[in-house]
Amino acid sequence: MAYYLVRFYSGSGDRPPEQLIREVVDNELRPKLQQGGGLNRYITFIADDGRIGSASVYETKEAAQNGLQIAREWANSTGAMQGYRLSQTLEGEIAATIDADIHYKPAFGMARLFPTQATAAQVVETIKQARAATQDTGSNIRTVIVQLPDGRVGSFAAYDSQERREQHTAAIRKARENHEMQRVLPNDPENIAVRIITSTGP
Length: 202
Description:
Blueprint: E1 3-11, H1 17-36, E2 39-47, E3 52-58, H2 61-78, E4 84-98, E5 108-114, H3 120-133, E6 143-147, E7 153-159, H4 162-175, H5 179-184, E8 190-200
Antiparallel strand pairs: 1-3, 1-4, 2-3, 2-8, 4-6, 5-7, 5-8, 6-7
Helix pairs in contact: 1-2
């Protein structure tokens, strides 16, 4: 089953974060990860709180773990990430990718981490039923729904503008007024907003 992996790094180095991402991470690390196999999509970002990071879609959990080892060895051998430390990892099996066939250049992103007793599969099914009932085509926002190991359900969406991100946030808030949606997503999510620097893959 496809696997999602997000890593956040805190700290600072000898070059600005965007320069580090474009000149080092994307040019040096990404090709190594692709050579490692199983990597379908790779996004780098700077979070609104200043952290830098990456989001990856792998074919399997095993491929993701191999990618982690490649990244670890690369960082240790090159010293490229000196001054940064891994501060947060989000990972899990992908339950569904909503609007996967929608293509646009991603410029902004949002992770929404929902505390819930429902599974990611139940959340996905409820979203599909709610959209069908209202004949909603969604906001045509590519969104990955992930079952996180701690029981939370992660929603990871990419946008072509900040305005679209704000509109989608409002749409999600309104959708959660639906009784069935309230049942599976009763609690407000933790939101992590990011600006996407590079994006590779479908």
